[in-house]
Amino acid sequence: MTNAETGSMPDALPQGSIDTVIIGGGQAGLVTGYHLKQRGIDHVILDENDEVGTSWRNRWDSLRLFTPAGYSHLPGMEHSTSKHTLLTKDDVADYLVAYAEQFDLPVSTGVPVDRVAADHGRYVIESGGERMWANNVVVATGAFHTPRVPGFADDLDPNIVQLHSSEYRRPSQIKDGSVLVVGAGQSGVEIALDLCDDHDVWLSGRNPGGPPFRRDSPILRIMEPIGWFMVSRVINVTNPIGRKVRHKFLNPPRGIPRGPGATAELNDSSVVQVERTAGTKEGAPQLEDGTVLDISNVVWSTGFVAAYDWIDLPVCGEYGYPIHDRGVVESQPGFYFMGLPFQRTLSSALIGGMGRDAEHVAAHIHNRRLS
Question: Quick one: pLDDT at residue 249?
């Protein structure tokens, strides 16, 4: 299925025409392929990586999902472990490989897409000088891939090691001395905790909130089903409360709340929590209250910006975010997005929450063929 497993060369872009092209072979692309296959719709999934699951394997070593396995699977295939297990990054990668194999999904790996454009009532997809055409295109690359780093990062002393969270893998990348982690969402908390055993660590930024329970709290087992029902069913774009939450969440785009136990574990650690980092002074980071920190390393856990400049179509609006209705781009018939934050619910960007979004997109493609 994936040529990295067989040792063969990466696939070339499939030639000719096909009904539907899915761009992105992560969980959003695979679950869309699953629902298209259930409807007998001819499609191909293009993945720029040489193996399914690569984007997960390339994350930091200690990463674990904050949603347990029981809420972190795609339709048709649950995890073999306990539903309460917190999966590692490699667990997720292995699961995605197995999912693609289980349902024999048509994944072409090693195919980066350079451009998508309209072409005489269809869409043309370009990769490495090659072209193919499709009646429908589903962009399932995720919302954000380009790291966001503040402009004042260039003003820091060049002797300070700087990494974005997308580059961080393990503590050995950090040199001796103290560390400032900028960005206090889930990723920032996890990286700060990963580093605090061997370094003095400051965590800078706004607490985005999250469940107050400790991970080992018995009450969490009771509250998890209720919380999941809220984020996957109640808080959705079909009601006024959900639309209000979505507007606040996306204008401007912001990180999701911390997972269960994150804040409690942070408060129990040696990590020092400080205000937002506002700039620099004489080559050192300066906080909003004027405090200047003497540090040797900075990890920017400041998120990502939308990166859809390779789509040569007017499908994005403010902040570069796609203009869509539950993944359907109404201004461009046959064009879709999958895996976006709050595509339908607060859980839309989570593995366990995107199945219904994919089913909606696949149904729309199916109905379009019949019209």
Answer: 77
Q: Share the mean pLDDT of the chain.
A: 92
**How is residue 154 written in tokens?**
């260039």
Alpha-carbon distance of 267 to 26, in angstroms, equals 34
Evaluate whether 295 touches 216 at the Cβ level (below 8 Å): no
Give percent above pLDDT 70 in the chain.
95
Residue 255's pLDDT band (cuts 50, 70, 90): low
| Tens digit of each residue's pLDDT (9 = 90 or more) over 161-184 | 999 999 999 999 999 999 999 999
Q: Which domains does the chain have, with CATH numbers?
A: 3-145+305-370 (3.50.50.60), 149-211+257-300 (3.50.50.60)
CB 293 within 8 A of CB 180: yes
Predicted pLDDT at 224: 86
Specify whether the CB–CB gap between 87 and 72 falls below 8 A: yes
Q: What is the pTM of this model?
A: 0.91
Token pair, residue 308, equals 């859809």
